[in-house]
TrEMBL record:
Belongs to the PPR family. P subfamily. Residues 26-68 are annotated as: Disordered. Gene3D superfamilies: Tetratricopeptide repeat domain. Keywords: Repeat. PROSITE patterns: PPR. InterPro entries: PPR5-like, PPR_rpt, TPR-like_helical_dom_sf. One of its GO terms (molecular function) is mRNA binding. It holds the Pfam family PPR. The gene is LOC116212161. This is Pentatricopeptide repeat-containing protein At3g53170 isoform X3. PPR repeats lie at residues 130-164, 201-235, 236-270, 272-306, 307-341, 342-376, 377-411, 412-446. It comes from Punica granatum.
Amino acid sequence: MMTLLHFWGPADPSWSSSISATPKTCSTDCLTEPPRPQTSPSAFSVRSSTRGSGTVPSGLQKQPKKDLSRILRTESAIRGIEKKANSSKYSRLWPKAVLEALDEAIRDNRHDSTLKIFGLLRKQHWYKPRCQTYTKLLMMLGKCRQPQQASLLFELMLSEGLTPTLDVYTALVSAYGQSGLIDEAFSTVESMKSVSDCRPDVYTYSILISCCIRFHHFEQIDRILAEMSYLGIECSSVTYNTVIDGYGKAGMFEQMERSLMDMIDSGSCLPDIFTFNSVVSAYGRSRHINDMERWYEEFQLMGIRPDIITFNILIRSYGRSGMYEKMASVLDYMEKRFFSPTVATYNIITDAYGKAGDLGKMDDYFKKMKHQGIKPTSVTYCSLVNAYSKVGLVSKVDSILRQVSNSDVKLDTAFFNCVISAYGKAGEVEKMSNMFQMMKERKCWPDNITYATLIQAYTAQGMTEAVRDLEAKAQG
């Protein structure tokens, strides 16, 4: 792997910098950085600075999706900048081209391209190091699971004479934590305590908690909360919701309810719809239906009203528990309260009836879904294929494929795995092989499940040569 420093080249004190063209010191930059986010605990992102200001007409505030031509132009621009990054002679490029290419690469989490473009940025005569730029790069490297590159980037930042800000340190904590390097994340937090104006705040600790939960270091949660209390840092709603959701997904219901009580007792952070859905989902996922229903009522007594996600959770939970009458009653309730089912709602219902073998109900809801103008997704078709395969209705699988070929649904590897499995179980080796070929043509790359399914089907047919060929491809 090419190292980070290889992309960037040697430092040169004559290079000035900023992701804007206005020279600023690091301390000045810190004052102009965007406010620290306090919303979703899983949204480890730093908002890009806005180019220009002014009132946007209300009719133009909603940006349309990039069309194909815009995407192609962006791809071309990034490739063009990348080519220049590999040369040492481009030091007077137009700032707008370099900065836009860098922004696009960061937004798309293309870490290799981003580092090359950043190396080119550092060569420009108008470049000045800026803390906000490094923060965005560190956050992107965290999302891409590149902790080593993040560490090298941090060292490079220090070598450029910048003093890390709170946001920079927090981004580094996130980069380590999202890759499971919990010790390094804690070590970074300790380093923050010794730096003036960089003491960890509630956002830093919320990220640290989220990373500990993701990698099942639940023993660290109480330690972090105790440290926050000692430092006088109050938990935010995000912090409480992160802890509650984490304990719930791990089936640690006693700790989940204790954290919920702490949230209520705090007086400053009351439960909200995210808390509601986390608790209800935790019990529903584990088929603790009585507890799920109890908390469903409790939260409403607190004045929190269910939303469409809540109803989807109830439907899924009842479906998993085989309580189809209650599942239907939730749908009736939604209709009376003018909650429109979403594609997720219908996917849950078709999957539940499909697994129950009630193909009549499954087909009815699939037709209703299309009648209401809701486009089926790859998930919908997977449920249908699995249900038909389970009872040996291969002709129905053929019908699904015809529907898919006449639609604009975006297929994925999971869908092809379902169809390959269905044909394999039915002994339709030729159709299975055709699907494998179509899968590659659609740029849905085979995974371990694909190869295991094919090998099992070929083995059952005594096709040893085909098995050896697939095993070689799977290992390659």
